[in-house]
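Last lecture ended with a question: if I hand you only a sequence, what can you say about the shape of the protein? Today we answer it with a concrete record. The protein is Helix-turn-helix transcriptional regulator. Below, first the input exactly as provided, then the predicted structure, then a couple of comments.
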Amino acid sequence: MACDTNLNREVGLRLRALREQQMLTRERLAEYADISVQFLADIETGRKGMTVQTLRKLAVSLHCSADDIVFGPQEWPAGAGTAPPGLAQLTPRQAAVLHDMALLMAKWFPHEWAGEAHSEEAYV
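The predicted structure:
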């Protein structure tokens, strides 16, 4: 059970940080997620865990992924070099929109471009 308590505390701290980054009060986030303020306080302090349904409601309300709440912000992929300047300063919502845009763009690029070096003529 100690592991569950530690995990609840870690998740709660991440949830609180995300809420505060978006300048939301507990009352407002609880309203958006359709949960009680006391339950949100219990989650943020690690006194209680939450169901997947509650996690989903909180993620949607915070415009972030459930991974952001459970695991924390994801690092730039290893081997990809450094993140472009300013990327770390994106809000969770901005990062989610950027991610969705990248996925959409990837669908439209020719597959033969993937992982290959090309001359400038190939891009014209």
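Comments.
1. Helices lie at 2-21, 26-33, 37-44, 52-62, 66-70, 92-108.
2. Residues 87-116 form one domain.
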